[in-house]
Amino acid sequence: MRPFTWLAPDTTEEAVALLREHGSGARVIAGGQSLLLAMKERTVGPSHLVSLGGITGLAGVTTEPDGALVVGAATTYAALTRAALRGWHGVLSDVAGDLADRPVRNRGTIGGALCAADPRFDVPAFAVGVDAVLRISGAGGDRTLPAGEFLLGNGLTAIGQDEILTAVVLPPPATWDAVVFEKFRHRVFDAAIVSATCALRRGSGATPAAVRVTVAGATATPVVLAVDAGATGVHAGEVAAASVLPDATDEATRYRRELVRTLVRRTVDRARTQQGSA
Ligand SMILES: Cc1cc2nc3c(=O)[nH]c(=O)nc-3n(C[C@H](O)[C@H](O)[C@H](O)COP(=O)(O)OP(=O)(O)OC[C@H]3O[C@@H](n4cnc5c(N)ncnc54)[C@H](O)[C@@H]3O)c2cc1C
């Protein structure tokens, strides 16, 4: 690991000013679970690390008057797992509690997972799946971006060099009546090979008013699928397999395509069952 200077700002504004001052040599560090690994492997070698650990208000969960859930970017997985989240917001707690191992969950943050933009990570997949909005602060002011527009590729995001992701906002509970997240991994501590999220809004009859299906891990960024609201799980699985990985010419891609098909079928079926019994 190359030598670096540790900077510990007290506010987001101070952190942004430090990023600006030190330019491309500066990197934000949250839990360090991805960044320190990359520094040890020397794929990155920042001269300055701007720590988010001392910034008040960047960690924790609050609720907006309309019920939207605001999760501070520096909130750890462990804190999310302990948070008493209601309705489908609780699925985020389940996602946070069912990844990696305890040391990673104790230090890794929701913002770090999004900014690392690894296609296998669970929280970015879930954020796109429920159509979460991200809050970003920078020298040019504050802005918001849907999670699906934030993730641009493996390790690539829409965040600027002197910007900080400050919060992830899950839409109000009434947005969805059922949310189901499923993933496939080889061993319990492995990252997912493929994950799927189904977010469903109930209609007046048996057919849902809206079904949002998102597949992650199989491609560089999560894919949101146009699935007919009345589609069965089997049909949604077929649509997903054909559109996410259309050219499955080798064994590994065919394997992933089967995972896409199966996980989408399961999430859609489970979401439809939940909305039926809600
Ligand atoms: C052994 C192991 C197993 C794992 N298994 C899983 C798994 O099964 N599922 C899963 O989803 N993930 C898994 N992970 C990944 C883990 O979720 C991420 O490493 C972690 O969430 C990253 O968060 P962090 O706070 O540690 O980020 P850091 O490592 O501190 O930062 C990551 C990147 O994001 C930037 N950054 C961080 N926060 C901000 C911010 N607020 N604003 C702007 N930029 C920011 C940093 O500059 C850096 O580029 C695993 C990691 C390890 C080490």
Write up this protein.
The chain has 278 residues and is an alpha+beta fold. It has two domains: 58-173, Uridine Diphospho-n-acetylenolpyruvylglucosamine Reductase, domain 3 (2-Layer Sandwich); 176-277, CO dehydrogenase flavoprotein, C-terminal domain (Enolase-like, domain 1). It is 34% helix and 25% strand. The protein contains ten helices and 14 strands. The chain has helices at 12-22, 35-40, 77-82, 90-97, 102-107, 110-116, 122-129, 147-150, 233-244, 251-277, and strands at residues 5-7, 26-29, 48-51, 61-63, 69-72, 133-138, 141-146, 151-153, 156-157, 163-170, 178-184, 194-201, 210-216, 223-226. It has a five-stranded antiparallel beta sheet with strand order 4-5-10-6-7. Helix 2 links the parallel strand 2 (26-29) and strand 3 (48-51). It is globular. The model has no long low-confidence stretch (mean pLDDT 96). The chain binds flavin-adenine dinucleotide. Residues 27-35, 37, 52, 73, 99-100, 104, 107-109, 111-113, 115-116, 121-123, 159, 164-165, 191 line the site of flavin-adenine dinucleotide. This is FAD binding domain-containing protein.
Topology summary:
Blueprint: E1 5-7, H1 12-22, E2 26-29, H2 35-40, E3 48-51, E4 61-63, E5 69-72, H3 77-82, H4 90-97, H5 102-107, H6 110-116, H7 122-129, E6 133-138, E7 141-146, H8 147-150, E8 151-153, E9 156-157, E10 163-170, E11 178-184, E12 194-201, E13 210-216, E14 223-226, H9 233-244, H10 251-277
Parallel strand pairs: 1-3, 2-3
Antiparallel strand pairs: 4-5, 5-10, 6-7, 6-10, 8-9, 11-12, 12-13, 13-14
Helix pairs in contact: 9-10
Bound molecules: flavin-adenine dinucleotide (FAD).
